[in-house]
Task: structure prediction
Amino acid sequence: MIHAVYPGSFDPVTRGHMDIITRAAGMFDRLTVAVARNLNKPSGSFTAEERAALLCRCTENLPNVTVDVCDGLLADYVRKTGADVVVKGLRAMSDFEQEFQQALINKKLNPEMETVFICSSVEYTYLSSSMVKQVGTLGGDISDFVPAEVKDEIIHRITNRT
Ligand code: ADP
Result:
């Protein structure tokens, strides 16, 4: 029984995140999507509860996936939940450097923790949450970037935020 954790900001969830979630759900017995409550939240962000609610809607049909909000160190969260593996998505070499450093630091903080990287599907390598927010704020069409079931909610939130 392998329990994997997929951590991130998911601010908001994109089709790139869903690609990783769907594939990881097929690889591991149980997957927890852990929404990090950002301490230094960039302006215009969704709250952690909003980000988690969007992810819950998108993962409803994946029975081995749950969504949680996590505070503090990922290494502590993994220890506390008893998870076996951390899953990260890799878009390009630019992601790799930071992810590699993070994986090594996490291993130092929690030697039992393993990090597994899943390469982005080619059609999502350019996609990021910040790009979705930028395009949405400027009135662009984000249909191809975010899951269909939460598109309207994301647009509503982006256009009505303070
Ligand atoms: P971002 O704000 O850059 O989208 P997140 O913190 O929400 O980043 O990402 C969480 C995890 O998902 C990270 O491992 C990140 O590399 C990965 N990820 C983000 N976008 C994609 C994508 N389009 N394809 C594959 N993995 C992705």
The chain has one domain: 3-160. The mean pLDDT is 94. Strands lie at 3-8, 30-36, 65-70, 85-90, 114-119.
